[in-house]
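Q: What structure does this chain adopt?
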Amino acid sequence: MNKLTIKACPVCGGTHLERTLTCVDHYASGEVFHLCRCRDCGFIFTQDFPVEAEIGRYYETPDYISHSDTKKGAVNSVYHWVRSYMLKRKARLVAYEAHRKTGRLLDIGTGTGYFADTMKRCGWQVDAVEKNAGARAFAAAHFGLEVKADTALKDFAPGSFDVITLWHVMEHLEALNETWEILNSLLTEKGVLIVAVPNCSSYDARKYGAYWAAYDVPRHLWHFTPGTIQRLGARHGFILAERHPMPFDAFYVSMLTEKNMRRSCPFVRGMITGTWAWLHALVSKERSSSMIYVFRKKKSDKTVE
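A:
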């Protein structure tokens, strides 16, 4: 298997890298992967992960909910209930942050299409891309969505979108810096980029350490904190305008972590940890299990004569 070894931090370019955690792939393979940390900026990433052409098999499991939409088990049932609530919240958030009720929206990594369908029903003109063929087929069959393959990103004209969303997608993308350049190009000058990712400085991440389910190696390549994603955005011409907590994620992630650890009563234990994480996020949103980041393009320095 071909693996990619990171020799320079993709956020700051630093080369002072150190191994920080060793994690197990509980979903598909049982293999062990190491996380590295940049000593210059603190960014954490999965080291020696399978290259894009070969990582597909690590998603090929009926338990991978983003692609299979499985409702098997109590943990996934909770996921579906929370998703129904979050879809409405996300739609309101997009309208609020974009300062408009309709427009052209691109959803990257749309999965089985629930969010894209929600925004379409709200009156938005929606384009959606998704790498997984099975998920694209699900979106077409259940919602009538014409979801494009991820290679279509390069086919859109510059300045095509008022809003671009990536809901728990950025952590999967091998070409991290190239993707941010494309995002900047595709947005209008007053466009909004909305990115949701797990927060590895959260309460539940610190509690569970290497067992934290949101490390999800090797599918999750990059492990962000509020500080590191802000720095990455700035590198590509974005200003971090707002941060929103996703406290419900802690319940799902904690239940899944307890299940992976093979502890008794994972549902109950996960609910307890999720509750503590939720309370911590109320005090400081930067400790939320996942975060939604709202980016806007930096204003041009052009002067008018």
